[in-house]
Amino acid sequence: MILKWIFDRVVSFIGLLFLWPVLLVVAVLIKMKMPGGPVLFVQKRVGKDGKLFKCHKFRTMVNNANDDDNVDLNANDNHNLNLNENKNENKNKKDNWSTVSVAGDNRITPLGAKLRHYKLDELPGLWDVLIGNMSFVGPRPDVPGYADKLEGEDRDVLKLRPGITGPATLKYRLEDEYLANARELVSNANHNVLGCSSTTPPAPEHQLERKKARVQSRKNFNEVRSKTEEGRCLPKEEIDRMTDQELAVWYNDNVIYPDKVRLNLYYYRHYSFWKDIEMILCTVLGRKMKYAGEVI
After folding, report:
1. Mean pLDDT in the chain?
2. CB neighbours of 82 closer than 8 A, spacing ≥ 6?
3. CB contact at 8 A, 33 and 14
4. Could you state, in order of their start, the residue ranges of all structural domains in the chain?
């Protein structure tokens, strides 16, 4: 991946050189339309080899929306992430806020929604690429609390530098808008993806036939289903009690996130520099491409 390393450094430098007027305009707009907070949102993310780094984006939410995330990383920059120690800490944080956002989330400002839609909030990531914390193409950097779900060969994802774009990013490019229909998505996933009935998990004697049928129609989710945690099926009564935000988090954790891991593992095992170029072009032009046997 030497060519990839050289490409990242050269193109990120050129990008910052030529796009600084755009960054300046966006920064001024944030100051004017979203006063009282910083221009940049800096958050701890899990990088290559499980190391924490500071990820930079333009702020798209109200000030202090995820205040717990903005912590000093000076003591952790050169140490591997201790996944077990962070598990309980992040569980407690999720009781108060969510890292999963959906379209219409009242934390997202009108300007922030536009920046997210056109991916302009990602432009400061060029700096992260230039200094070597990120790459143009790779898995999106996760917040602590998701990396600890990676087990066995899935941990190969951590051998990659996080990317501004990638196969999972292309497939779920408008994820927050997609998750706005979380209630319907969860109901469909219960039956079609996870093989659950509306009230209880399917009886053991019917599981084999249902699995064979799902393999034919939803082969891309077959691996996803095997990797989701126990208790993934939600009874209808539970769905009715949960808020839209809680359902969005459930759908992300049980369907989207495992699918992203699958795509990122494929990327790691079938790396192609020319596919990187194609993904970058598709991201910039808003187009789809064929990858890993599907259109993303």
Report:
1. 81
2. none
3. no
4. 1-148, 166-296
Non-local (6+) Cβ contacts of 287 within 8 A are 281
Compute the distance between CA of residue 97 and CA of residue 115 in angstroms, rounded to an integer. 22
Report the alpha-carbon distance of residue 220 to residue 222 in Å, rounded: 6
Cα 291 to Cα 17, 75, 124, 191, 295, distances in angstroms: 32, 39, 27, 26, 6
Beta bridge partners, 79, equal none
d(CA 83, CA 144): 8
The structure's pTM equals 0.77
Nearest Cα neighbor of 254 from 175, 189, 169 is 189
Q: Which amino acid is at 50?
A: G
CA distance between the termini of the chain = 23
Q: Rounded to the nearest 5°, which phi and psi values hold at 104? A: 95, -5
- The predicted-structure confidence for 239-296, as pLDDT tens digits, reads as follows 889 988 899 999 998 899 999 999 999 999 999 999 999 999 999 999 999 999 999 9
Which has more pLDDT, 252 or 236? 252
Quickly tell me which residue has 């941990």 as its tokens. 155
d(CA 56, CA 9): 17
